Task: inverse folding
């Protein structure tokens, strides 16, 4: 974009800020015109409200690692793509532990393509990365997620930038692009399974991982509006990069962000921008329970199964009902492509086979990303902590 080879670019907040700074140095200006996906709290609400959503930043360890949470990473080697959104997340997470990033951990720079093999050969203890790698590596079976960016409670986003001169010269093109994004979001919301398959063909990322992000109650919202938290995130990104000596000069987020074209696109689509700006909800789930056929009213314990050969993902009112059905489906010779559960506290969507479960005395299962959160639930409510394999055992379903 700085070289004039591109007019538009879509990227996360940290690269976006680098784009703005590089353009300024070159005597030009780019503007951030819309959010594409993100979370005002990192990747989940972390509040127990069940309103989690996210940007996909996270930390993973080898699948057979004894490490269970970020508290276990003191003195360990952690790789991360430097000057990325996930680098900022990692630094915030380390600061929250009260650690010195120069002394208490060994941070090295690695791209996800390098980090994947490094995890498999145990050359690193952990890897921090952005969408979709904190979910993709666990889905592929060689890593396990131990930290989600919701725990840092820091807004993150991806968005679109355009060269300011181009936008001023061709506002109709910028508005048309944004109207196309709005239409794409409509299509994706209506048929998430279909478009997860399409995204997979284009990107090589498995459909089951794409669905984890873009489905109802998924890790990302497709909210385009410039919420105050996102404006703050852009400024924080610049300030962090400046602290890392990866950026210099000054950048004013509110001057860098320009939502006039997005507002025009909303008007053209007969949508209320200000109403969307106030809306913080996840992409809603409108589904019937696969067992009873009744509408699912409460989604805090929803679980889903994607069966190979079926066009639509099955939804269930609870993890225990879904886990029970997994066994039945397999006994019928059907292949389960993916099992999803919502984290009981944060509400973020999980790969169920990677989750920890707290089983109450009545057989109720509650899913958690982290083992220590499942243990905290059991300490408060009683029961026992189970991994997915144990949760599948008949004894774990007794007295349900």
Result:
């Amino acid at each position: 974009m700085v070289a004039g080879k591109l007019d538009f670019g879509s990227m996360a907040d940290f690269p976006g800020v680098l784009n703005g700074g590089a353009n300024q140095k070159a005597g030009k200006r780019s503007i951030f015109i819309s959010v594409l996906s993100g979370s005002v709290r990192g990747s989940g609400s972390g509040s127990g409200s069940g309103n989690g959503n996210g940007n996909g930043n996270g930390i993973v360890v080898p699948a057979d690692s004894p490490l269970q949470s970020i508290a276990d990473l003191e003195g360990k080697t952690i790789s991360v793509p430097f000057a990325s959104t996930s680098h900022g997340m990692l630094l915030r997470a380390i600061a929250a532990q009260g650690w010195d990033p120069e002394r208490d951990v060994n941070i090295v720079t690695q791209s996800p393509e390098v980090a994947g093999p490094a995890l498999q050969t145990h050359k690193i203890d952990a890897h921090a990365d952005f969408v979709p790698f904190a979910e993709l590596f666990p889905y592929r079976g060689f890593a396990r997620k131990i930290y989600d960016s919701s725990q840092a409670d820091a807004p993150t986003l991806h968005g679109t930038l355009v060269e300011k001169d181009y936008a001023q010269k061709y506002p109709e093109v910028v508005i048309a692009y944004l109207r196309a994004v709005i239409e794409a979001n409509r299509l994706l919301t209506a048929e998430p399974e279909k478009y997860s398959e399409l995204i997979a063909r284009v990107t090589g990322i498995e459909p089951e991982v794409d669905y984890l992000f873009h489905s109802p109650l998924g890790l990302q919202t497709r909210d385009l509006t410039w919420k105050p938290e996102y404006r703050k995130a852009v400024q924080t990104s610049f300030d962090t990069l400046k602290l890392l000596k990866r950026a210099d000069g000054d950048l004013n987020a509110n001057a860098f962000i320009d939502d006039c074209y997005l507002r025009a696109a909303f008007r053209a689509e007969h949508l209320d921008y200000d109403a969307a700006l106030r809306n913080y909800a996840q992409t809603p789930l409108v589904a019937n329970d696969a067992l009873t056929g009744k509408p699912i009213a409460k989604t805090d314990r929803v679980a889903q199964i994607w069966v190979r050969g079926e066009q639509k993902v099955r939804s269930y009112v609870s993890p225990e009902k879904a886990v029970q059905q997994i066994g039945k489906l397999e006994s019928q010779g059907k292949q389960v492509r993916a099992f999803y559960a919502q984290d009981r506290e944060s509400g973020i969507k999980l790969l169920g086979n990677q989750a920890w479960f707290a089983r109450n005395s009545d057989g109720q299962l509650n899913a958690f990303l982290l083992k220590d959160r499942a243990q905290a639930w059991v300490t408060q409510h009683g029961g026992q902590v189970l991994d997915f394999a144990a949760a599948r055992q008949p004894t774990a379903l007794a007295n349900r």
Observations:
- The chain has three domains: 8-40+155-278, 58-135, 303-397.
- The longest strand covers residues 30-39.
- Residues 8-40+155-278 form a domain with the D-Maltodextrin-Binding Protein; domain 2 fold (CATH 3.40.190.10).
- The radius of gyration is 21 Å.
